[in-house]
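In the design runs reported in the main text, the only information available to the sequence generator was the tokenized backbone. The following block is the verbatim input for one such run; it is reproduced so that readers can re-run the procedure and compare outputs position by position.
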């Protein structure tokens, strides 16, 4: 498991713990947010995404974005072959 995936899994588990504490009334939103290291508003956003999409809604959305700077694999392989044939 890559480090990024591991951190996302930890984030999900911590959120579930804070969410359950908030749902049961043991924690306020502010306390739950503090446990996660985020502000109240971010915790409310997490709640909305969790209730809409489940745990997958908590995955950092920046990780889903495709890099436009990354060259397609076939182009890279063609360049590598061209380089090898010349050198």
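Verbatim output:
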């Amino acid at each position: 498991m890559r480090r990024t995936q591991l951190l996302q899994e930890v984030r999900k588990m911590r959120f579930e713990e804070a969410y359950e504490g908030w749902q049961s009334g043991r924690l306020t939103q502010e306390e739950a947010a503090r446990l996660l290291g985020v502000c109240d508003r971010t915790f409310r956003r997490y709640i909305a995404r969790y209730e809409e999409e489940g745990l997958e809604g908590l995955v950092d959305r920046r990780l889903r974005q495709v890099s436009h700077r990354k060259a397609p694999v076939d182009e890279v392989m063609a360049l590598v072959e061209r380089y090898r044939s010349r050198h």
